[in-house]
Design goal:
It is built from 4 helices and 17 strands. It starts with a helix and ends with a strand. Helices cover about 15% and strands about 55% of the residues.
Length: about 325
């Protein structure tokens, strides 16, 4: 009986995973936009109930000494990823890349109850391009401001609603040109019938992107205190706790972003960049303030595409190595 239940859960999770993969192929999914739907890594680490996020009683965080009720949390999440040289498909040339990002988040409790997350995010992609007859900028840059809040749907038990907006600029020069300004937004619902299962659904809207609407759908399922499935794009993952400090994880990271860049003498050209990373690693929690992880794996389905018809270049599958550190006070 337990085995058949386990198999059904795995089939459901696999279906959600494949559904999200198909949406990621068709829609432009920003790295942080969907992930902001729920602070899933925090939930998996502390076992915090979504109800405690919305109306915090003596929460698990407070019990662990991470934060007292009503106290604000400041968090910094940063990573560096290296993608070694890979050859172009069907043409001459190769490309080598580095990717980095740092996000500052302040988690507030307005009026002592309403959770509001305010964040500032910067991204940098360094490109060493030797692709034949295909111009790429030496770098891609991103700057985004994000605000998100959640509240209970009082007429439906165990349901919560959320809304968020992300004013942003994605360019190749840290610029703030008006033509590069976008305001993606998201509207979603969270259903948590028990401590094991969380289901999320909604829509994300991307004005002026090639694909303007993307569905939000994902699930978190905790089999026990050690094993958890978090199938929420763009970073679905499986996590297993070896100890209170050490976690092993496997993850899929989906990048599907658009940048306004210069190409030759032409300004304001939109470049779409996509890659899929599949790998795993180890996470270590030093104390209640700092945790870090090291991971690596394969890079698949990577390409660059100019929306104005300026061409497309695909890159052979390769590998990546990543270091991430998270600090909070």
């Amino acid at each position: 009986m337990k085995l058949s239940k386990f198999a059904l859960v795995l089939l459901f999770i696999a279906g959600v995973f494949l559904l999200n993969m198909s949406f990621a192929d068709e829609h432009s999914v920003d790295q942080k936009l969907v992930a902001r739907v729920l602070d899933q890594e925090e939930d998996l680490r502390t076992g915090q109930d979504v109800r405690d996020i919305v109306i915090p009683p003596s929460s698990q965080k407070a019990k662990e000494g991470i934060v007292e009720d009503g106290e604000n949390i400041f968090e910094v999440d940063s990573y560096f990823r290296y993608l070694p040289k890979s050859n172009a498909k069907h043409t001459d040339g190769d490309i080598e890349m580095t990717e980095s990002e740092i996000e500052y988040t302040l988690k507030l409790k307005a009026f002592g109850k309403l959770p509001i997350d305010i964040s500032l995010d910067t991204q940098y992609v360094g490109i060493k391009n030797q692709l034949s007859a295909f111009q790429l900028p030496n770098r891609l840059t991103g700057f985004a401001f994000d605000i998100d809040t959640k509240l209970p749907l009082f007429i439906f038990e165990n349901w919560y609603a959320g809304i968020g907006i992300s004013p942003s600029w994605y360019t190749d020069n840290w610029g703030f040109q008006s033509s590069a300004f976008r305001i993606p937004s998201r509207y979603y619902a969270i259903y948590r019938p028990d401590d094991k299962l969380t289901i999320i659904g909604g829509i994300a809207i991307y004005p002026d992107y090639q694909s303007t609407i993307s569905p939000i759908f994902g699930v978190i399922y905790k089999f026990n205190d050690k094993l958890a499935f978090n199938i929420i794009p763009p970073r679905p993952n499986i996590s297993y706790a070896l100890t209170d400090k050490i976690n092993l994880f496997g993850e899929l990271n989906i990048t599907n972003s658009e940048f306004e860049v210069s190409r030759g003498g032409q300004e304001g050209v939109v470049l779409r960049y996509k890659e899929v990373n599949l790998g795993g690693g180890i996470k270590y929690k030093f104390n209640k303030y700092i945790e870090a992880n090291i991971s690596g794996g394969g890079v698949f389905n990577r390409y660059f595409y100019y929306r104005d018809g300026g061409g497309k270049r695909s890159v052979d599958n390769g590998g990546y190595a990543e270091f991430r550190i998270i600090g909070r006070i």
